[in-house]
């Protein structure tokens, strides 16, 4: 690994490190992480911290809650967030800033650009951004769901050179090391494919976090496609951070793409959620990536979901093949109306006046999936 190329990094810390016993925040495991951040900054490396832990940190304030419903968890997050930020702030002798996000903030292009600008401004002024999902207000429709994937989205937004994801094990193994003594650590992953995901298994059972190894691989896939080297390391041992500072790989290194996706294409593919679908015939062969105007209402056989002008939509064939995610220039209501017109001349004249159905300004090709 070549740490000399790092100018900006994102480090993700999970709930188990923040509040290992769910009795409030503990600095026990955070000291070595904080020292790593301080040393990186001293070397001129900008750092963004993505920190889980608000629910775990606040849970001890609700001792009489046997059944924690969503409302109580949101209250725990609200109470625990201040304790978590306070704990981090005490470990640094420089200012930090709190950034709370939902997926709705990230998938809206205007708000996403605003987040980028805020991150850059904080970093340029030597302020440490501390990012977390806004669990107090988020809903199933609005949430990212885990801070592994959130950290990858933040790393892309921040144009980071490296993403470091802290885990409770040394990295990705070829099988579960808790159940198999002969499990082998993969120190290097060049391509993330189904065989890599097969090694991950499901979410961790009985832990205080929301993810597992699979979400970390999902995050790595998002990050490397943006040209960001990604590391899964053991966050519970100081040795991991000392090795990183020495330019050594303490865990699993996922290699970044040599030619990363363009920023707007990466956002469309990995961050923006499709709000609806446009279905075209299976023999549709137009190259949407090169010329979005080749998609006309005459090729559309169905419109699914409800979306507005400017929303992200998925264009796919009726055999299930995904073609592109793109910005829609039509609402679902209007597109349904135009597509169902028997008079093709009317539809053609309408599109000629109002412009193409999808915009190639933000368009991600999915046909190879």
Automatic annotation (TrEMBL):
<dbReference type="InterPro" id="IPR015947">
    <property type="entry name" value="PUA-like_sf"/>
</dbReference>
<protein>
    <recommendedName>
        <fullName>Glutamate 5-kinase</fullName>
        <ecNumber>2.7.2.11</ecNumber>
    </recommendedName>
</protein>
<dbReference type="GO" id="GO:0055129">
    <property type="term" value="P:L-proline biosynthetic process"/>
</dbReference>
<keyword id="KW-0418">Kinase</keyword>
<dbReference type="InterPro" id="IPR011529">
    <property type="entry name" value="Glu_5kinase"/>
</dbReference>
<dbReference type="GO" id="GO:0005829">
    <property type="term" value="C:cytosol"/>
</dbReference>
<comment type="pathway">
    <text>Amino-acid biosynthesis; L-proline biosynthesis; L-glutamate 5-semialdehyde from L-glutamate: step 1/2.</text>
</comment>
<dbReference type="GO" id="GO:0003723">
    <property type="term" value="F:RNA binding"/>
</dbReference>
<dbReference type="InterPro" id="IPR019797">
    <property type="entry name" value="Glutamate_5-kinase_CS"/>
</dbReference>
<dbReference type="InterPro" id="IPR001057">
    <property type="entry name" value="Glu/AcGlu_kinase"/>
</dbReference>
<comment type="function">
    <text>Catalyzes the transfer of a phosphate group to glutamate to form L-glutamate 5-phosphate.</text>
</comment>
<feature type="binding site">
    <location>
        <position position="135"/>
    </location>
    <ligand>
        <name>substrate</name>
    </ligand>
</feature>
<feature type="binding site">
    <location>
        <position position="147"/>
    </location>
    <ligand>
        <name>substrate</name>
    </ligand>
</feature>
<dbReference type="Pfam" id="PF00696">
    <property type="entry name" value="AA_kinase"/>
</dbReference>
<dbReference type="InterPro" id="IPR036974">
    <property type="entry name" value="PUA_sf"/>
</dbReference>
<dbReference type="GO" id="GO:0004349">
    <property type="term" value="F:glutamate 5-kinase activity"/>
</dbReference>
<feature type="domain" description="Aspartate/glutamate/uridylate kinase">
    <location>
        <begin position="7"/>
        <end position="234"/>
    </location>
</feature>
<feature type="binding site">
    <location>
        <begin position="210"/>
        <end position="216"/>
    </location>
    <ligand>
        <name>ATP</name>
    </ligand>
</feature>
<keyword id="KW-0028">Amino-acid biosynthesis</keyword>
<dbReference type="InterPro" id="IPR036393">
    <property type="entry name" value="AceGlu_kinase-like_sf"/>
</dbReference>
<dbReference type="InterPro" id="IPR005715">
    <property type="entry name" value="Glu_5kinase/COase_Synthase"/>
</dbReference>
<keyword id="KW-0547">Nucleotide-binding</keyword>
<dbReference type="InterPro" id="IPR041739">
    <property type="entry name" value="G5K_ProB"/>
</dbReference>
<dbReference type="InterPro" id="IPR001048">
    <property type="entry name" value="Asp/Glu/Uridylate_kinase"/>
</dbReference>
<keyword id="KW-0641">Proline biosynthesis</keyword>
<feature type="binding site">
    <location>
        <position position="12"/>
    </location>
    <ligand>
        <name>ATP</name>
    </ligand>
</feature>
<dbReference type="GO" id="GO:0005524">
    <property type="term" value="F:ATP binding"/>
</dbReference>
<keyword id="KW-0808">Transferase</keyword>
<keyword id="KW-0963">Cytoplasm</keyword>
<keyword id="KW-0067">ATP-binding</keyword>
<feature type="binding site">
    <location>
        <position position="52"/>
    </location>
    <ligand>
        <name>substrate</name>
    </ligand>
</feature>
<comment type="similarity">
    <text>Belongs to the glutamate 5-kinase family.</text>
</comment>
<feature type="binding site">
    <location>
        <begin position="167"/>
        <end position="168"/>
    </location>
    <ligand>
        <name>ATP</name>
    </ligand>
</feature>
């Amino acid at each position: 690994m070549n740490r000399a190329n790092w100018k900006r990094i994102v480090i993700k810390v999970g709930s188990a490190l923040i509040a290992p016993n769910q009795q409030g925040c503990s600095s026990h495991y955070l000291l070595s992480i904080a020292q790593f951040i301080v040393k990186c900054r001293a070397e001129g490396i900008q750092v963004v911290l993505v920190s889980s832990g608000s629910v775990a940190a606040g849970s001890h304030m609700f001792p009489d809650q046997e059944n924690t419903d969503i409302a109580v968890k949101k209250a725990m997050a609200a109470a625990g967030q201040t304790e978590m930020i306070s704990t981090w702030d005490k470990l640094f002798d420089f200012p930090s800033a709190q950034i709370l996000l939902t997926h709705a903030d990230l998938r809206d292009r205007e708000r996403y650009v605003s987040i980028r600008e805020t991150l850059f401004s904080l970093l340029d002024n030597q302020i440490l951004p501390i990012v977390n999902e806004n669990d107090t207000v988020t809903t199933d429709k609005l949430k990212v769901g885990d801070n592994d994937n959130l950290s990858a989205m933040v790393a892309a937004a921040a144009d980071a050179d490296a993403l470091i994801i802290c885990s409770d094990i040394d990295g990705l193994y070829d099988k579960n090391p808790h159940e198999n003594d002969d499990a082998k650590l993969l120190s290097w992953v060049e391509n993330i494919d189904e065989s890599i995901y097969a090694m991950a298994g499901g979410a961790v059972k009985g832990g205080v976090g929301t993810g597992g190894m699979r979400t970390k691989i999902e995050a790595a896939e998002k990050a490397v496609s943006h040209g960001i080297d990604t590391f899964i390391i053991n966050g519970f041992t100081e040795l991991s951070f000392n090795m990183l500072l020495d330019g050594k790989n303490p865990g699993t290194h996922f290699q970044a793409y040599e030619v990363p996706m363009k920023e707007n294409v990466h956002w469309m593919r990995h961050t923006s959620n499709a709000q609806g679908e446009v279905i075209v015939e299976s023999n549709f062969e137009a190259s949407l990536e090169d010329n979005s105007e080749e998609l006309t209402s005459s090729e559309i056989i169905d419109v699914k979901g409800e979306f507005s002008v400017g929303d992200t939509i998925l264009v796919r064939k009726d055999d299930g093949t995904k073609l592109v995610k793109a910005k829609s220039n039509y609402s679902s209501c209007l597109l349904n109306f135009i597509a169902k017109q028997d008079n093709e001349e009317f539809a053609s004249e309408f599109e000629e006046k109002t412009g193409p159905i999808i915009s190639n300004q933000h368009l991600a090709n999915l046909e190879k999936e």
